[in-house]
Design brief:
The complex is a heterooctamer, with two copies of chain A, two copies of chain C, two copies of chain E and two copies of chain G. By secondary structure, chain A is of the alpha/beta class. Chain A is 36% helix and 17% strand. Chain A has one domain (20-248): Rossmann fold. Chain E has one domain (2-175): Pyruvate-ferredoxin Oxidoreductase, domain 3 (3-Layer(aba) Sandwich). In chain E, 39% of the residues lie in helices and 25% in strands. Chain E has six helices and six strands, in the order βαβββαββαααα. The longest helix of chain E is centred in the last third of the chain and has 17 residues, at 160-176. Classes of the chains: A alpha/beta, C alpha+beta, E alpha/beta, G alpha/beta. The structure holds thiamine diphosphate (2 copies), iron/sulfur cluster (6 copies) and magnesium ion (2 copies).
Chain lengths: 249, 249, 76, 76, 177, 177, 355, 355
Amino acid sequence: MTDFLFQKTNGLTDKQTHYCPGCTHGIIHRLVAEVLEDLNVVEETIAIASVGCSVLSYEYFNTDSIQASHGRAPAVATGIKRVFPNQIVFTYQGDGDLASIGLAEIIAAAGRGENITVIFVNNAIYGMTGGQMAPTSLVGQKTSTSPLGRNPLLAGMPLKMCEIMSQIPSVEYVSRVSTHSPLAIRQAKVAIKKAFENQRANRGFSFVEILSSCNIGWGLPPVEALKWIESRMISYYPLGVYKDGKDLE
Amino acid sequence: MTDFLFQKTNGLTDKQTHYCPGCTHGIIHRLVAEVLEDLNVVEETIAIASVGCSVLSYEYFNTDSIQASHGRAPAVATGIKRVFPNQIVFTYQGDGDLASIGLAEIIAAAGRGENITVIFVNNAIYGMTGGQMAPTSLVGQKTSTSPLGRNPLLAGMPLKMCEIMSQIPSVEYVSRVSTHSPLAIRQAKVAIKKAFENQRANRGFSFVEILSSCNIGWGLPPVEALKWIESRMISYYPLGVYKDGKDLE
Amino acid sequence: MARGVLIIDRNRCKGCELCISVCPVKILSLDYENANIKGYQPMKILSPEKCIGCCNCAVICPDQVIEIMKGDTNHG
Amino acid sequence: MARGVLIIDRNRCKGCELCISVCPVKILSLDYENANIKGYQPMKILSPEKCIGCCNCAVICPDQVIEIMKGDTNHG
Amino acid sequence: MERRIVIAGFGGQGVLTLGQIVSLMAMEVDLNVTWIPSYGAEMRGGTANCAVIISDKKIGSPIVNDKIDILIAMNAPSLQKFVGLVQTGGSVIVNKSIINSIFDNADKFIYEVNATDIALRIGDIRCANIVVLGALCKIVNELDLSLAKRIVAKKFVKKCELLKLNELALFEGFQSI
Amino acid sequence: MERRIVIAGFGGQGVLTLGQIVSLMAMEVDLNVTWIPSYGAEMRGGTANCAVIISDKKIGSPIVNDKIDILIAMNAPSLQKFVGLVQTGGSVIVNKSIINSIFDNADKFIYEVNATDIALRIGDIRCANIVVLGALCKIVNELDLSLAKRIVAKKFVKKCELLKLNELALFEGFQSI
Amino acid sequence: MGKELMKGSEVVGASAILAGCNYFFGYPITPQNEIPEFMARELPLNNGVFVQAESETAAINMVYGAASSGRRVMTSSSSPGIALKQEGISYCAGAQLPCVIVSVSRAGPGLGGILTSQADYNQATRGGGNGDYNVPVYAPADLQELSELVQHAFYVADKYRNPVMVLIDGTLAQMMEPVELIKITYPEIDHMQWSVTGRKDRKNNHIISSIYLVADELEQHNHWLSKKYEQIVNLEEKAEIYQCEDAEIVVVAYGTSSRIARTSIDNLREKGVRVGMIRPISLWPFPFSAFENLPCCKYCLSVELSMGQMVSDVILASKFKYPVTHFGRVGGNMFTNSELESEILTRMSEVATND
Amino acid sequence: MGKELMKGSEVVGASAILAGCNYFFGYPITPQNEIPEFMARELPLNNGVFVQAESETAAINMVYGAASSGRRVMTSSSSPGIALKQEGISYCAGAQLPCVIVSVSRAGPGLGGILTSQADYNQATRGGGNGDYNVPVYAPADLQELSELVQHAFYVADKYRNPVMVLIDGTLAQMMEPVELIKITYPEIDHMQWSVTGRKDRKNNHIISSIYLVADELEQHNHWLSKKYEQIVNLEEKAEIYQCEDAEIVVVAYGTSSRIARTSIDNLREKGVRVGMIRPISLWPFPFSAFENLPCCKYCLSVELSMGQMVSDVILASKFKYPVTHFGRVGGNMFTNSELESEILTRMSEVATND
Ligand SMILES: Cc1ncc(C[n+]2csc(CCOP(=O)(O)OP(=O)(O)O)c2C)c(N)n1
Ligand SMILES: Cc1ncc(C[n+]2csc(CCOP(=O)(O)OP(=O)(O)O)c2C)c(N)n1
Ligand code: SF4
Ligand code: SF4
Ligand code: SF4
Ligand code: SF4
Ligand code: SF4
Ligand code: SF4
Ligand SMILES: [Mg+2]
Ligand SMILES: [Mg+2]
């Protein structure tokens, strides 16, 4: 009998992704799918795809899915979760989606303490629309709408979502992880697992921010892009658990 | 020559307000107006009125004004401030306006570090529409949409805006004050003044949360309502300066 | 004796009693006899001479009803 | 000798080189000679026997190209 | 037959409730009825009013902005505001206790009821609206005092003390004109 | 006179730029011209293509989804995708270096250019598009080699080394068919 | 159950619950606050869910999420709030999600006023979201009909897998009338084939989406939607025709203004004036067929509490066979019967002169 | 300046700057990303301001704020993004703020696809915001005209103190054509009487607002707005009439589809077919007067990249004097000249048979 050291997860369909070569969206998809499989909830999960490069993620997650309008995934998740409180519902959102147009929805859903899991893919750019500045783009980062680099005097300093989310009383769990190395990826999986376990245990709103690369948007080769996460992003977006347990009154 | 110990401010028009008897919106109007007068900027100020009981505040502030759509005052303020960077621009927003429908706009404007002043009137309810639950309504608080009292299992725990705002790197100043007593009101004025001084000195986004009463919405006589602020609100919404000075990278 | 002299814009008053509740010397009351133009029973001052000029009443009044002049402290 | 045996789904590979960059024993490379069905130069393994089965490559691959079986450690 | 009734007063005087009771009474005798509050006023704690239309035909607009048949004015501003819209031959019930305005009453029937005083005397100022209801029963054929009693009883079924007061109020109101 | 040109290839092959150069050339000789990229493809780093129409009349749709006069296929998938839309008597310039597919060419003029090879030989693989431009000048009356030189020079004015390479590429392309 | 004296807003809520709607997502706005308030009170008693959304935008997207389950879901709002829902409604239509949106219109544009208005006819019937889609719109004129149409709206939404709107105005929402709440029985519609529930032991994943990146697929989808809309046009027109057989002048009015109009028609009929009314009950599909048999019609008056929006549908319906003009009051004002009657008489005399 | 080869999106930006627009607020969405990108690059060079808003909703409200200054302000977006702006546009109209909104439509409904489409005709011309308001909508067919109409839009916005929309589709935004950027001179319009600047030494405060709580005041405001709209209808209709003198079949098409149509008409004319075209340049006001002189018209074909939206305006314009039908492709597909020509010939033969 042969044993696998690493095996494809049945949390994903067999469909090949449309992502650019080396895009870490693919890694994050797999991590989420593996967690769903590990927790044995693939068949009770409803994924909420958002608008961004991951708009078609409903073709990859081997679950029932709803494709939400730009920024509103947490509201859509609220809708279906309130109908099926025992199913596992998660949103998968980019930084433009969650930290720009969808700020109200993410904070309000967290405020209500919806028992959902949010996978927040922070790649510091609008990938899908061709590399515009995101709220999370770093100071000095050149994008198609900050051609001279993000100027904090005009566009402010990048938003730190974990720091914000952890200030919301009804939030259960907030963690920031990364995808820049195998070790970071393994740690990311631990956080994602925790976030889904919380939901299964009815502990409430869990939020995992995952630093991710957009080599195309950043204009870097894939391997260089991972280095950019490590050298540039992590210092501004420190990894770690920001919150574990609701604030009680 | 007679001296005044207390004199009406020319920062307000002479128009009588439409507020319910004892509504502290009136006090906050006066404080803002006094500060504008003290700083001698009444004639260079543009007030942004929001949608809430204070929707007509443009009739009371003795300044040019723009009435903004519900929740979008920070975006409107951004628009006019970017045209007139040397004028004083402030928004005057309720908790429904700012902490519910307008969450994205307030956080994004703070994220950009707009050089504006935000007066956030937290009365833990939707006053104008007749007393519905606000994101800031206290746990157990009875409102017309939480007839049995706010249930944190369904509606989450109240949002704490100062705590959230102070996590935004480009924010300069965050303070929470109250209107429940003459002392508190005097302290509130200090915070408001600081918030406008910051703007005048180009220091950036300043945010003052003011605990305010809605005796009608709360179903209490005005004097009791002030006591309710003191006894119930302040313990959940501690007063004080939450941030003074931007986070530098 | 009065350190403060209140000027009351009676018709602006909405009778909310906030001023009354914060006057340290308890010299304010509603005028239960006469409604003002808006139909409210407005605030009135009972013992003007006892005013200590603390301005609490004016500071808390939401409706710009009260202005306060310095009393004739020379005679105090 | 190999602790891990890679099963490579060649036609899924997009040639991003992430796996190559994280293999501690540097046994992975792109196949510069043959493009796969998608037109990418896919990853290939140079010295399968040197694989230590660390799974780094599979863990970082964004495209589910790699599965890894336990090598025949008995013979190791 | 169509009766266009406007009931107006201060916020706390129970004018909306009075309108609803009248509407319920009309329903009991199988008449069509509409009730609508004025919800336009921004001023809180100001005046409140509602319009009730009772008819044996289908009712068109529930809003009464002209041709009032019966005006119930619980305070002076309300009287002022609406009395001009009362049609010739119409009736005005005036809460005499707190209204002493003078108005042109040449072509109308005026009924003065010391509603607030009576209510106070009975023991609860909040009964003033029911006092007026008593009076109304006297001048409107379709609205019968015993019916009023029944409806009021239903409406206040949970508040026993109030119920007895209200019965008294009804009776006193009926007697008062 | 109307020429409907489709230029297609991989993302990095400069097909959009080539289309723009052709458009600029047409402008110089006072022809009407439109250029449009296909922006529908979601797949990044996949194929890219643009359509250029040159005409002495007002140009209708800038989109060329049928009746291609000239197809420039820089890689195999592009050839496959578009060759069926080339009209009878139309021309196909094929980047022979990397295309060896077989296709139905009965009613078309086929020009094979080893564009990538030539570019590599000249010294920069990115010149392959300019090699093809040279060839294009040979088969299109309105597009003159010297004009091409001028426009390419303008377009790459800031990148001197590239400029010289490009001149060479143009020439070699022109000679290649 | 017998008749009860109910407020329009409460009729909306109670009828929705009667129709099996257990999920409501809304946001306060006058003059429809009593709908979410009713739901906040009543739904929990029925094991239902009320969520006060953070905005109208969020509310319609919660509806989108909840409707993906195939259950009956509702939201309500008023003019500017409906404007904020337009993207979400377009999404619901694109993803073919049944749901009911109650629009209580107030006076506009912008913040406008909170009084009654019918100036959101275009907003309701022409969308405002993007793309080719339609939303059936029902406009009751009294509270009994409101109760029926709310239930009907759920049925139509389910039948066609499409959002359906019930359009009333501040007057209908705020007024009380005797209403008998009667549960209407409709054919059962099974949504198991498409609804998102978690895969369970199904083989295929169910996916709710409105994105079609390949033009041919989107075109096919558009044609499929259009076919549904055609079917709705053919089957779902609703109108009341009142006294039109011999009418020389036909008033077209819906909702609150049709109430006033009916009285005026009765009044004028008593005087021998040959006037009638077409009362559109479905605004989309507009009841064009109701105009097919107006043998004596010489003039058509589109009566709306707007500056004239429905009037263009009435002109289309008239096929230019007789003149059509608009009459109305706006800003929260309502025309009186005498205003309307004098307008009708003026138009009547014009027609007579032209004869 | 001479002609330059420019992309539609860049023409939008460059022409706005030429018109004195120094303030742009936008949010990314395909296929109009190149507009904000151009503005982000170019405006700072002109001391102008580019702000990437957090959403389309925020962008239109920034426009509302900036336009309160009386300066020229613009935003742009595409289909679902325009839907999100509807409330804000209604506010701008209500508060009488001049501003320009560029709508680059893509295929819908919902998220739909990113390819070209004209299915946002209703969205543009019927609002979708609340209340009685109108927005002039200009639909250029080539990039030179785009440059002119963008400038014209600012003028019309200023002249009437109203938002104005320029509606193009993905094709026009993405294509390149030779364009000569020519600054058009218009009469100067002074906004000092109402604009918000800080009071300074003025006596009265300037206030921008769309709220009117008293019905009579709002009614008066509505009438004032309507008067403006009437004036616009009377003065601002724009259309090109092409080969219609003797045309038996008239094609009505705007924007991209009119380009295709023109070619087909030329092709058919060569074959002797009497076909012409009305090309609406202003979609609202719809150029009804262009239809007044079609002496030979027996058939009208509304050609759109939608399932049929403009067609109802064309029917209104036809006054039912000849049949009107719709022809189009959707989902991002465009009809070819041969598809259109065969449609025209089919209709032509129908007409002939009926004769
Ligand atoms: C209402 C609306 N606005 C804008 C868009 C265009 N749009 C599509 S994806 C996207 C942003 C994607 O960025 P992000 O969320 O960071 O995801 P990424 O592609 O980087 O993974 C935008 C603005 C849209 N589809 N809908
Ligand atoms: C888009 C939109 N949604 C809803 C409303 C209705 N509305 C008016 S004021 C208000 C909330 C007011 O609450 P808050 O902001 O707390 O102010 P307060 O009245 O308590 O001072 C709402 C929801 C509106 N006018 N516009
Ligand atoms: S554009 Fe960026 S985020 Fe999108 S698929 Fe490519 S690399 Fe990934
Ligand atoms: S409702 Fe509340 S907030 Fe509004 S004016 Fe009255 S007391 Fe103040
Ligand atoms: S100033 Fe002080 S002492 Fe005088 S009346 Fe006011 S509160 Fe009382
Ligand atoms: S606080 Fe002002 S409004 Fe209230 S009672 Fe006193 S004087 Fe009157
Ligand atoms: S498992 Fe480890 S050693 Fe083996 S190929 Fe992969 S990365 Fe290299
Ligand atoms: S990481 Fe995966 S996709 Fe990338 S080269 Fe390696 S095997 Fe191929
Ligand atoms: Mg991103
Ligand atoms: Mg509030």
